[in-house]
Amino acid sequence: MSRELLSSKVVVEEEEPRVRGIPSAPTSVVGAVGLAERGPIGQAVLCTSFEDYQATFGGFTPDSDLALAAMGFFEQGGSHFWAVRTVHYEDASDPESHTATPAAAALTTGGGPTPAVVRGTLRPPFTLANGQRLEVSANAAEAVDVVFSGTAASVSAGRPGPYTLTAGQSLRVRVDDGRDVFIPFSEEDFGDITQATAQEVAAVLNAGLIGGRATVEAGVLRIASDTQGASSRLEVGDAVANTVFGFAGGPQVGSGNVQSLRAVELAEVRALVEAAVAGVRVAPSSLGALQLLTQSTGPGASLRVQGDAGSGLGLDALLHTGDASGATDVLHLEARDAGAYANRLEVEVRPPTNGAPETFDVLVLEDGAYRESFPNLSSAQGDARYVERVLNDERTGSTYVRAFMVQPDAIPDVQTVALSGGADGLVGLDDADFIGSEAGRSGLLRARRSAGPLPPPGTRARHARRPQRHGALLRGGARRPRLRRPRLARGLQRHGHRLLRLAGGRPRRAL
Questions:
Q1: Which of 55, 66, 100, 266 could be bridged to 34 by S-S, CB 3.0 to 4.6 A?
Q2: Could you give the CA distance from residue 493 to residue 496 in angstroms, rounded to a whole number?
């Protein structure tokens, strides 16, 4: 029958029945959490080969089985390995509370007058409270207040208690960018579930909330996020929320001039201080701590920082003055990833390759071997070879260090500096650091939420949100494995590992 329609009509074509196949999905997907030499902390990264893993997380370390697990997985035919690097967290629900620190150094220039500098003793992120302030006085001028503000997203019940509840009812709550949490109500939680008081409801909610809290203020039930700042989010929604409690529908948003008061970044401090105080700059020190500097130099430059936010930022309240001559930090260097591995890095400054004035070369060394070279860099922000822009470029920049200009337009002297101060953050490591937190989206909970649909070929899926269907665990045991890959067997036995357990979508097979 012709398929060409010359006029409007209904055409019926009969075809032989066909069996439509169901496309199969790869099942060789593993998620693993462990210690690594380097790499992002608390983020699930997809690796499709062992070389891919090494490029992101480094090589073997005496404290970790993660690299060994990745090598064994790929040698056994695996194709998609989701790796999460973990360290010790002071608070598992706060992803910024990890104790690993990046190594840092500073390129300097000497001989000229120096600015007045207030050097901090703490590295970001900083923990502050709503309304705390800095009083900054530069060059004997009147002090200017810099206020840090942040309020949590919250919602209050529109109906007073007591509340008529039914056993089995639940309240849906979502805090920040976490998942929906359904908090059930049962008869044993109340003296009389049909006459539930606001205090009883708050107690039940607090037992199930992640990253938030319920309070009763003047008899009114209130739910709030633990995050104070512009990134705070809260949503309470379902039929129970509206009909029983009278909570407002839709997401509630926090406010403030920082994203989160419990994790204030140096860039946020810089933006607030430099916008409010003329003649003062904010930059990281050679150790990565906060420091404030005057733009003017010499003995006439002075700087004093007071206020209740000073202690949270690690700043003293003394008067600091500039000098007639001395070494001045020009460029702050920081390892891209936290960890002690970066203490092996050095950065060398050489005269420019092309001999152009006001330019210089930067080379990065690891264990004494040259790894990267960036010729003919400039300290002028408008230049195409501006050092910050070149070194920090995500595609063509350094894979080892990041650069932050401290003294604009200044040229660092020819020198070689070693990065120092990097720490792996393993002191106090316990099971909670591996298991993670739903609120902090770390550990196994990060791996389970990240290993989802496979990405198209040639791409790297980073933050898929569907649950993981396949997982992998490594643990010690009482018997030695019989591996058909001798390289893996020797590696396992040399490092004292006795049992390798892999669980995945494929049937188990003898290793």
A1: 66
A2: 5
